[in-house]
Specification:
The complex is a heterodimer of chains A (about 400) and B (about 375).
Chain A (H helix, E strand, L loop, with lengths): L15 E10 L2 E2 L1 H10 L4 E3 L12 E3 L3 H6 L12 H16 L7 E5 L5 H12 L7 H7 L4 H9 L6 E4 L5 H14 L5 E8 L3 H9 L23 E9 H6 L6 E10 L12 H14 L8 E3 L6 H15 L4 E3 L2 H4 L6 H15 L1 E2 L15 E2 L5 E2 L4 E8 L3 E8 L4
Parallel strand pairs in A: 5-6, 5-7, 10-11, 10-15, 11-13
Antiparallel strand pairs in A: 1-2, 1-8, 1-9, 3-4, 7-8, 9-16, 12-14, 15-16
Helix pairs in contact in A: 3-6, 4-5, 7-13, 10-11
Chain B lengths: L2 E10 L2 E2 L1 H9 L6 E6 L2 E8 L20 H17 L11 E7 L4 H14 L16 H10 L5 E5 L4 H13 L6 E8 L3 H9 L21 E2 L1 E8 L4 E6 L3 E2 L6 H12 L4 E5 L7 H12 L4 E3 L2 H4 L6 H15 L1 E2 L12 E2 L4 E2 L5 E7 L4 E9 L2
Parallel strand pairs in B: 4-8, 5-6, 5-7, 12-13, 12-17, 13-15
Antiparallel strand pairs in B: 1-2, 1-9, 1-10, 3-4, 7-9, 10-18, 11-18, 14-16, 17-18
Helix pairs in contact in B: 2-4, 7-8
The chains are: A alpha/beta (about 400), B alpha/beta (about 375).
Chain lengths: ~400, ~375
Amino acid sequence: MSESTDASGKNGTARVAVVAAGVISPLGFGLGETLDSLRAARDCVTAVTRFSVAQCRCKTAGQVPDERLLAERRKCARPQRFHRAAHMMIRALAEALRQDAKFKPELTVIGTTSGGMSYGEDYFRSLHLHGDLRRSPTWIANYPAQKPVVDALDTFGIRAPCQVIANACASGTNAIGHAFECVRSGRYERVLSGGYDALSELVFVGFDSLQASTPEKCRPFDRDRTGMVLGEGAAILALENLDTARARGAPVLAEITGYGISTDNFHFTQPNPSGSGPRQAMEHALQSAHLSAHTVDYINAHGTATPFNDAAEGKAIGELFGRGVPVGSTKSMMGHSLGAAGAVEAIVCLLALQHQFLPPNINFHAPDEDADLNIVANESRPASLRTVLSNSFGFGGTNASLVMQKFEA
Amino acid sequence: MSLAIAGMGWITPLGGGVDAVWERLLQGDEAHAEKITEKFDDQAYTVFRVPDSALASLAPHPRLRRASLISRFAAAAGLAALEEAGVKLDPRNAERVALVFAISNGGVIYTKRFYRDIVESGAQSASPLFFPETVFNAPASHLAAILGITGATYTLVGDGAVGLLAIRMAEDLMANGALDYCLVVGAEEVDWLLCDAYHKWRLLRLEPPVEPFNEVARGMILSEGAGAVLLAREGLIKIESTHAGGYYRKRDEAEDVLKRILCDLIEAESGFVIASANGTFIDEAECRAISQVIPGAIVYTAKPALGESVGAGGLWQVIVGGQALRQGELPPLLHVTSKIPLRISASGSAAATARGAIVLSCGLNQQIAGLCLGVDR
């Protein structure tokens, strides 16, 4: 589906460059700290502090520390009213714009799953318990999913319209993929893309109620995996037509060359055990990039560590790529940041390409007999990478894959 | 790139079906107002609900068994749009159809229920049955499963402008020649909690009528339902152009953003404007922008009759615009009580000679979008 062709069937030919990037996640504030954490295989999952988890099975998550996030918040019009998701977006966007201050997007495409959900929780809790509702206008106005995006854009005077994609856990990859197709088709020259999500009680308890989250360590693709842990963060990738980027002397960090999307109608919260949905997304991404499977040097897997996801994804990867390609899930280090995950993991892929290493899949002890994969177990390692693939799959059967390549002029 | 509307589906508080709802709008009908209450608060609110009869023809489906109302509205509207277009999806062509879903408040009924259990009884009492329905893309997923769509499915979240932004996104997707159709659906359900939030935000009035373009913005009435538009490459009603949209920082900037969008969209043949005026601050911004940029155009909004359905609202506006071009007639604009510098749609306003229409959507939370419809006469 995602083969980029115009209405007459002609292939879209524009090459798409990543010219700037920014990230904030449990791995660190910015690309440098993220790189350090990845190389050191740092476990950034900690005990939840934002709300009570006394009645939950799972007690941990990947968290962005508030004291640092809010202490360094920018001087903007009403920063104290912003949701902390907006502060994360502002941090990520600030880092990207420091690399390329002249980047003027025509469109913004951002993924999220829950927007400013914790403000909705504050509002409902105060209302229901007859508490203090003086802040309710702030909670209500800053709850909608587009608000953190608009707040971030406005902080830097960017007036580009925004599309906010909420495709569950695939949102971030869908946002970057759609932005990629917008540039590749020639309809846009510069599109800002990414994803964000902040930890919220409702979502945390939701995954706990489904017994999808684990009281133990997150062990993607391990034989003894018991589930996911949640995370949070924001990431931005500035995409531009390669020709215009080079013409204005912009840095080219990498190229996005392929994107695939599929919808698996098997079940709302579980993938088809055959792996057909993930496989279809990966096949489409490879077709879109005009590449064959054996050219892929690393797969950043969705790898939530739930028994169902990893089995289906592992099956699809095994069938399509064989055992050779190194596979890892960096969610093992920072948790699953939902709508931000695809964007944060695109940054991980970008860093892997730039610094020629394989990011680790930590907490891995025993291979799963049902999935014969070459897991990047527990430690990062140097590698020669030219092409990497990043997967994101979500509730509702939405599957997305992205192909990123080292830039070669 | 020109796209066309191949089929439309409409589930509203005035019933279901494009022709039936249209007939009621032409007659000047408005939806029945219903009071809703909440056990933990004394305040009552008024909403426009979809009558049960509007969903009578929706066949049972396993995916809809536990689904929230919003998913049922979306399924009924989506299926109707495909039926009107005479398009039947099967495994061979399903991958050549994309689904773009517009939503604002989402599955608020189950979300409230799920979180209420947490607040009242703790996390251990949270139901795993409700949580999946709280996810924004639940209605789109159910609809994709019902239709058998296996390719691109996107849920777009935003304010009242999200419906038009979804059509813009569909246009971007249709630039891909591998797609034959894109089904764009907007849906929303109402709940006491939403009413209370909008009321605390000073955007809701407690009783109808909705008075568009009034000197005093007394507020809107929330409503529920869905609208669906099947986009194809050929059809009677064309999507002549879409605007990527914009956002305003403060409310008093909305007028300037609307003017910019109108100036980009305006064509000599734009005979009328389907506005998003709903009794709030956006009315004044729209009134000023329209009267300055396109003063000769007839202006209509269906929100006094149908209410403000937020995520579904943009799709409803497109359906109104398309139907007016198709039928050559506009319904009367209800409850205009102030003297305003606009040519408002009176009873039986002729649109027979109009070859184009602008649909304008100003959301309540900073987003604005617009598009231009056309018809070959």
